Structures are given as C-alpha cells and as structure tokens.
TrEMBL record:
Its EC number is 2.7.13.3. This is histidine kinase. NCBIfam families: sensory_box. GO terms for molecular function: ATP binding; phosphorelay sensor kinase activity. Residues 153-372 form the Histidine kinase domain. The keyword ATP-binding applies. Keywords: ATP-binding, Coiled coil, Kinase, Nucleotide-binding, Phosphoprotein, Plasmid, Transferase, Two-component regulatory system. PANTHER family: PEROXIDE STRESS-ACTIVATED HISTIDINE KINASE MAK3, SENSOR HISTIDINE KINASE. Residues 114-144 form a coiled coil. It holds the Pfam family HisKA. InterPro entries: HATPase_C_sf (IPR036890), HATPase_dom (IPR003594), His_kinase_dom (IPR005467), HisK_dim/P_dom (IPR003661), HisK_dim/P_sf (IPR036097), PAS (IPR000014), PAS-like_dom_sf (IPR035965), Sig_transdc_His_kin-like_C (IPR004358).
Length: 377
C-alpha cells in the first residue's frame, strides 16, 4: 500500500526520477524518466544507470557520480545524457543519498530537462532582437518623414550658395566680355566659390548622416549638446525664415559635455522644432517666435529648451502626446511617432523630456546628465 502510494506521488512529479540500490542497480523509475529517456520499467529495473543513458565513453563519469552519492555526498551537475533513440539531452542532475538510521540505503537521482528551458531562452532572445530591430526601423522611418518635411528647407539652404556662385560666375563672364578681367582677382573669385561649394557639401553630407540607420546602441560618445542643435540648423534654418517665424538661438558655449548620440539628439530637436513650426502655422498670430536655449541645469545636468508662442496644448491632448501614433495632424503631416520616439531616445541617454506652460508659450525641455570627466565609459 505504502509503496503504491509513493509510486503515485513520484509518477506525478514533473522531473524524471530514479532510485538506485547499494549495488548500483536501478530499483525504481518514474513515468517522466520513461518519457524522457524512452526506457520502460522492464528495460531499466535491475540495470546499472550507466548501461542505459551514457553517451559513448561517458560510463565512467556516471559511475563515479553514483559512488560519490553512495559516500553521502549530494551531487549537482549540468550534464549531457543519451536517450534510447540516441538523442542527446541536456540536463541538470541531482543525486542525493537516502540515509536511514545512519545507514546509506539507496540513492535518488532527479533529472531536470534543460532543452526546453534553453529553447525558451532562445525564443526570448529572438523576440528581444526583433523588438530592437523594429524600434530601430521606426526611429528611422520617423527620421525619413522628418526629412520629407525638411526637403523644401534643404532646397532653400542649397539655393543660397548656388545663387552666390552664380553671381561670381556672371561677374567673371561680364568682365571677360568687356575685356577688363584682372587676372589677379581670379584666385579670390575661385576661393569664394570654393567656400560656397564647401557649404553645400556640408549640408549634403549632413543630410546623408541624418538618414543613415541608427544602430540600436546609437553611437554614443562624448559630445557638446550644442552640436546637434547647430547641425539641425544646417538643414532647417532658412525654412523658418520663409514661414515668418522668428527664431532665437541662445546657446551657452561653456556647457559641460554629455554622453550621447549626436544624430539621436538632433532627431529629437528636429521633431520638437517642426512641431513648434506646425503649431505656429495654425495660428493667425503676429510675432511668431521659436526660442532655443541650452543651459546648465543645477550642478550636474545640461538642458535644451525649445519653446514657441503658438499657445498652450489643451490638457486632454497634452496627456497623450507621448503615446505612439497619437497625432492631431492630418495624414501626411504627422505620424504621431515623433514624441514617443524622442522619449525613447532620451531614456536611452538616461535623461528626461518635460513640457511646461509659460504664459502663451509651450516649452519642451530635454535634460541629460552632464559628464564630470571622471566617468569610465
Ligand atoms: N509645440 C506644440 N504645440 C502644440 N501641440 C503640440 C506641440 N508639440 C506636439 N504637439 C502635439 O503632440 C502631438 C504629437 O506629436 P508627435 O509625437 O511629434 O507626432 P506628430 O508631430 O507626427 O503629430 C501633435 O500631433 C500635436 O497635437
Ligand atoms: Mg512631430
């Protein structure tokens, strides 16, 4: 009766389990052992364990483990064993002595299958990787959409140096036609043009960097937070002028450095700036203004604030602006991803993004920890 009782309990245990007598023979196996290794009780009882589940050449290891348990030790090991069909199985085994009245009467061995745990881990890692990949694609998509917005602005930016070059060329041609070109002025004209060409190259280079895919760890380095702001204005400055928006830049040139991704931060600032521009476009107000400031915040932080005087965001909208895909804009104008992606990028910088009302100004503030110079990175 008692034996059946225990057999029933052991049969319901989810790990494979066996008992071994003092001669090293199997005296009992539970149902999970049969399932895992493929041996029935008839094929197992009375045999040494090493005869059944040792992969080629491993018999000695099993016998040694059993000997250690027999001497009273508990043995815990990660091992590879072999099922009846030849399949190798990764396991954790625990061998424990059964001691009654100071006498070793038998050994119990429990086997936990690691394969399933490993498979789950691999699945989890794969899911994590896919998630990272998808996020990085989204960030990229949002950036491309910002670049769409920037296209007309970039056209303006390129137009200006082109016009300057045209004027220099026309001057030269006119002087040649009138036979009054002074040879010594030619190098100066060429230098002028070279400067304009360099300016255009900078804009195009930067556009290329801006659209390149961010890898998931975002190329973090020691940077001056003013740099991404200045780079942003390489692509967007002229456009704001044509929209009658007065832009004021107040950059503190004495800022401590921060640990960050220049492109990631530029993406955030660009989105906030474009959001500010959209807000102002919708208003009839005169004196449309955007102000950008960088400053030291307390002792160990650096902040950038971007504000516009297009009025405050209603509370019910404000509560939702960081949600992915939340937008109040017509299709094609907004993806609703800008601020949620900004928040994600900022969090990867161990920083924060906040929104404040200031009279009729809506103000976004981005704050990052300042580097003290003692960091180990
Ligand atoms: N400066 C701002 N003034 C008014 N509303 C804003 C401002 N910035 C963001 N918002 C609101 O937040 C929403 C979400 O912004 P965002 O995540 O950048 O997506 P999108 O710009 O594509 O709509 C906007 O649709 C707008 O309603
Ligand atoms: Mg936006």
């Amino acid at each position: 009766m008692q034996r059946e009782y225990f057999q029933e309990i052991f049969n319901n245990v989810l790990s494979a389990m066996i008992l071994i007598n003092n001669k090293g023979e199997i005296t009992y196996i539970n149902r999970e052992f049969s399932r895992l290794f493929g041996y029935s009780p008839d094929e197992s009882i009375g045999k040494p364990l090493s005869d059944l589940i040792s992969p080629q050449g491993n018999e000695k290891e099993i016998t040694e483990n059993i000997e250690r348990v027999k001497k009273g030790e508990q043995v815990l090991k990660e091992v590879v064993r072999q099922g009846k069909n030849g399949e190798l199985i990764e396991l954790v085994v625990i061998g424990s002595p059964i001691i009654i009245k100071d006498k070793h009467v038998a050994s119990s061995i429990v086997f936990s299958d690691m394969t399933e745990r490993k498979e789950n881990q691999i699945k989890l890692e794969k899911a994590n990787k896919e998630l990272k990949e998808a996020t990085s694609k989204l960030i990229h998509t949002e950036r491309i959409s910002a670049l769409g917005e920037l296209t007309s602005s970039i056209a303006h930016e390129l137009n200006q140096p082109l016009n300057n070059m045209k004027i220099v060329c026309q001057d030269i041609l006119r002087d040649v036609a009138k036979d009054r070109l002074e040879v010594e002025t030619i190098p100066e004209s060429i230098e002028d043009m070279e400067e304009q060409i360099n300016k255009m190259a900078r804009i195009i280079d930067h556009m290329r960097i801006f659209t390149r895919r961010l890898d998931s760890n975002m190329n973090m380095e020691k940077i001056n937070i003013n740099d991404p702001i200045k780079n942003m204005f390489l692509l967007i400055g002229e456009q704001l002028k044509t929209k009658n928006i007065d832009t004021v830049k107040n950059l503190n040139e004495e800022l401590p450095r921060v640990w960050g991704s220049s492109i990631g931060l530029e993406q955030i600032f660009t989105n906030i700036l474009i959001n500010a521009r959209h807000a102002l476009e919708e208003k009839e107000c005169k004196n449309k203004k955007i102000e950008i400031e960088s400053f030291i915040n307390g002792e160990n932080e650096v902040s950038v604030s971007i504000k516009n005087n297009g009025g405050l965001i209603p509370l019910d909208i404000k509560e939702r602006i960081f949600e992915p895909f939340f937008t109040t804009k017509e299709p094609g104008k907004g993806t609703g991803l800008g601020l949620s992606i900004s928040k994600k990028i900022i969090e990867e910088h161990s920083g924060r993004i906040e929104i404040e009302d200031e009279g009729q100004w809506t103000k976004f503030i981005i704050t990052l920890p300042a580097l003290t110079g003692n960091e180990v990175k």
